[in-house]
Design goal:
Blueprint: H1 2-29, H2 44-53, H3 60-84, H4 104-139, H5 144-158, H6 161-175, H7 192-229, H8 232-239, H9 244-267, H10 269-273, H11 276-282, H12 287-296, H13 300-328
């Protein structure tokens, strides 16, 4: 297991390097201009000096190598210093956003808590709701519970978040006035009253994302359970006199979790990347909204850094999912 993990981590290095290079070249060929919003009255020579100040004067390969060093060496040293409190931060320049002139790592650290509050909570609730529904729907196939669960899952998976979000705002914020229309990112949870306000403003975006996540995971869980309920080992376990709860929850569920774990593990990076559409609709000041702002402003360092961070998370949780296979199924070995 250790050798397999080490080999996968070493293989991830050239993979992430290639991803970063492709994203960088795509951004280089994009038609956006970071100085497009500047006044047209700026003289050409001043505009060229501004481009030089942003680091756009050198060849693309030199700029890519410089960004790669700052992103892979300097920024992690600052993150480690911020987490542990140790004096590990390297002196010198950092990856700066062209729009705010702030370090990209600091911007991500500022936006990450809001994303985890909303998107992370929705993903956890989605898993807690979806897995039991999928298990019981498969066990009671074609029952009224299975039919109702299938209908709700189809609705949740078919309706996009840019539709359900405005509908919830119209009904529960505008007509009924139960929840705030806009997410207040300045709210500090330092009392029970503010905690209640936080729950109220989280209710609608969390519900939108929970419905979408639960619909997808419950369908995978139901399909995996149905595939295993008809296997020979299930009939053997029942013939040996094992209780039905033990058969379903221990034997069938454990074997059925392998494809479900894949879906859940590959969906975890979306928690950190943020729900771009939902955060934009509800004005949640998270990473998804930051990504949209960076794209609209042609902020190449911020777009590139966020995209590579997303790629790192996907590669990492893909590895975690593969390792969990061996825990769930002892027949799987990576030796």
């Amino acid at each position: 297991m250790f050798t397999y993990t080490l080999r996968r981590l070493l293989l991830a290095i050239p993979t992430l390097f290639f991803i970063a290079l492709v994203i960088f070249l795509l951004l280089e060929m994009s038609p956006g201009d970071p100085l497009a919003e500047q006044p047209l009255t700026i003289p050409p020579e001043v505009r060229e000096q501004m481009r030089q100040a942003l680091g756009l004067g050198g060849p693309w390969h030199e700029r890519f190598v410089k960004w790669l060093y700052l992103f892979a060496v300097v920024e992690p040293s600052h993150v480690l210093s911020w987490i542990t409190g140790w004096d590990t931060a390297l002196d010198g320049p950092r990856v700066l956003s062209w729009q705010t002139r702030s370090p990209v790592g600091d911007l991500i650290a500022q936006r990450l808590p809001q994303t985890l509050w909303v998107v992370g909570m929705a993903y956890v609730l989605g898993i807690l709701v979806a897995v039991p529904i999928g298990v019981y729907s498969a066990y009671r196939q074609y029952s009224w519970f299975d039919q109702l669960g299938s209908f709700i899952s189809m609705v949740g998976f078919s309706l996009p978040t840019f539709f359900t979000g405005p509908v919830l705002i119209l009904v529960f914020a505008v007509w009924l006035g139960w929840f705030p229309m806009i997410y207040d990112t300045t709210l500090v949870v330092d009392s029970w009253e503010n905690f209640g306000k936080q729950l109220r403003q989280m209710a609608m975006p969390v519900f939108v994302l929970t419905l979408y996540n639960a619909a997808q995971i419950s369908r995978f869980t139901r399909a995996a359970m149905l595939d295993n309920l008809g296997q020979d080992y299930v009939r053997t376990a029942r013939a040996k006199g094992l209780r039905e709860r033990v058969v379903v929850h221990v034997h069938v569920l454990r074997n059925s979790l392998i494809p479900v774990v894949t879906v859940i593990a590959l969906g975890i990076p979306t928690v950190f990347t943020g729900a771009i559409i939902t955060e934009t609709i509800f004005r949640v000041n998270g990473l998804g909204q930051l990504f949209i702002i960076a794209i609209n402003g042609s902020d190449i360092p911020l777009v590139l850094s966020l995209s590579v961070v997303f790629a790192v998370l996907i590669v990492l949780f893909n590895l975690i999912a593969d390792l969990l296979y061996a825990i769930l199924d002892p027949r799987i070995r990576y030796d």
